[in-house]
Amino acid sequence: KADFIQAIGDAIASFPEMSCLTPRGRYTIKVYPTFLGAHGKTFDYKIPFSSITCLFLLPHNDQRQMFFVLGLDPPIRQGQTRYPFLILQMLSDETCELTLAMAEDELQEKYENKLTQEMTGPMFEVFSRLMRVMVGKKITVPGSFKKNNNQCAISCSCRATSGYLYPLDKGFIFVHKPALFIKFEDVATVNFERMATSGASRSFDFDVETKDGNVYHFSSLMKDDYGRLHAFITEKKLRIKNKAKSHVTYNDEMSGDSSDEHDAYLERMKAEGEEMDSEDEDSDFVAKGSGSDDDLEYDSNVSKDENEGDDSGGEESTERAKKRKKEQSKSRPAKKRKQEPTKKNKKDPKAPKKPLSAYMLWLQEVRPSLKKKYPGFSVAEIAKKAGEKWKTVTDKSKWEKEAVKAKEKYKKNLAEYQSTGKYSGGPTSPPKKKSQSPVKRKSGASSSTKYKSEEYIDSDEDNSTDDEKPKGNKEGIKSKTVNNTTRARSKTDEEMVSLGEEESESEAELTDGGDESD
Predict the structure, then answer these.
(1) What does residue 119 show for φ and ψ, rounded to 5 degrees?
(2) What 8-state DSSP symbol labels residue 323?
(3) How does DSSP assign 403-463, residue by residue?
(4) Which strands, in side-by-side order, build the sheet including 25-31?
(5) For residue 398, how many other CB atoms are within 10 A of its CB?
């Protein structure tokens, strides 16, 4: 069915930036004498009027939008995806003033006064009138089907995509994705599913089987729409697959009234509902203070005579207590394990630092002036202002060249570092002094003689030891203590100096890292 299209001449009318649902996007619709052109940002389509099979104008349920659907055969393609329907979306209150690019005499000759040169009104009406005349086909609108709130569409889902099902006079149409049109003459049977009477489900499913064997499944239809849809299907004389499931009206099913005929489906649904109710009895929710067994309090200080006198009651109470503990343990939320913090690999100080980008090089030059201009701003606010200013910079070649040079230098240093473990431009840090460990003195080797305090020395021993003690012994002890204190002070001073050097190095690394992050 491929054909060549003569795309010569000007467009009769143009509708800019129209919202299209399938294929999705915004397209400028141009109407030519023999075809329809859709021009988008990525794709352009030329649709001959001979390939348009049907036209639909469908109101949205919110009464604020309108769908205009064009059936296409052959369908248009976007890559490997085919679109047999072109669906345009327009606002109901959007007006349009259109001037056709044709003279009045030419319009009278070609279109027999069906079109005027000046056309005004709502957008969907103007577009519908123009397409009806140009394509030469009638536009199908919703017919007799109306819901309780006078809406024409049933909200449902098809292939896990929500949309609207429109029961028309000659078929069903579903918009918008995937768009489907099922004629009544092609329908073999319809089927209602999940019409449970227990009240657990508020929706049902609707299946349409065609004579070709294809089954279209529509799910999540609200039960309020069941009665109108069932009446519409019986009016159109469509064959219902299982009449036992759907010959009872929705109100009769909910009230539980049964007809004289035996309904096997209704009996099965009632049995399933009773089973569900019996299963739910085990897990009914009991509010606090309702008087249930779980809410009873038990006295732990019971005498032995009472326990011996009523063994059966004690066993029941222990069982109830165990049951209560189990329920409490289930109701308690599970404790979350604390995630152990992951150890980050320490950065090698000898490794070359990553190069700054053009923006960071520019920011180093501009930051002092921004701080002067905005003295009360925080770091984040200054960074924001710098980003706004960077967008307005037109000539960035200076910093981009510097960034390229820095990147090349970084690559060279990185290669040198990976091969040798260091590079020529790396930092040269002085060797750290090894901290001298304090010398431990043995009690036995410190002195050959032992000294006692004055409390435990007798007069006789004192006289005898005074003669034996060498002169200047007390002075030697004092000098040793003084030397020990001076050594300890010198060691603490050395440790403080080394700590100061390490803190200065860490501060330098932090400042370098802060500049890189900024």
Answers:
(1) -130, 125
(2) H
(3) HHHHHHHHHHHHHHHHHHS--TTS--PPPPPPPPPPPPPPHHHH-SS----GGG--HHHHH
(4) 44-48, 35-39, 25-31, 13-22, 81-91, 65-78, 52-59, 139-140
(5) 13
Q: In the block, which residue shows the tokens 């901290």?
A: 435
Q: Which residues pair with 444 in a beta bridge?
A: none
Per residue, what are the HEC states of 220-283?
A: EEEHHHHHHHHHHHHHCCCCECCHHHHCCCHHHHHHCCCCCCCCHHHHHHHHHHHHHHHHHHHH
Distance of alpha carbon 431 from the chain centroid: 54
Per-10-residue mean pLDDT, the chain, length 518: 54 92 92 92 91 94 92 90 93 91 86 87 93 92 87 91 93 90 93 70 90 92 90 92 54 43 61 60 43 41 44 58 71 57 67 88 89 87 88 89 90 86 59 50 45 49 45 49 54 55 52 46
Spatial CA neighbour of 351 closest among 404, 406, 408, 423: 423
Please state, in angstroms and rounded to a whole number, the distance separating the CA atoms of residues 364 and 357: 11
Question: pTM (2 decimals)?
Answer: 0.48
> What are the beta bridge partners of residue 189?
209
Helices (H) and strands (E) in the chain, counts: 14, 17
Positive/negative CA dihedral, 304, 306, 311, 312: negative
Rounded to whole angstroms, the Cα distance separating 25 from 441 reads 89
Length of the chain in residues, anyone?
518
Nearest partner of 423 among 415, 435, 432, judged by Cα:
415
DSSP 300: S
* The predicted structure's pLDDT at residue 209: 94
Two tokens, residue 505: 């190095």
State how far the Cα of 457 lies from the Cα of 480, in Å rounded to an integer: 23
Does residue 97 sit in helix, strand or coil?
strand
Closest-CA residue to 382 (of 361, 396, 364, 403): 364
What is the pLDDT at residue 27?
94
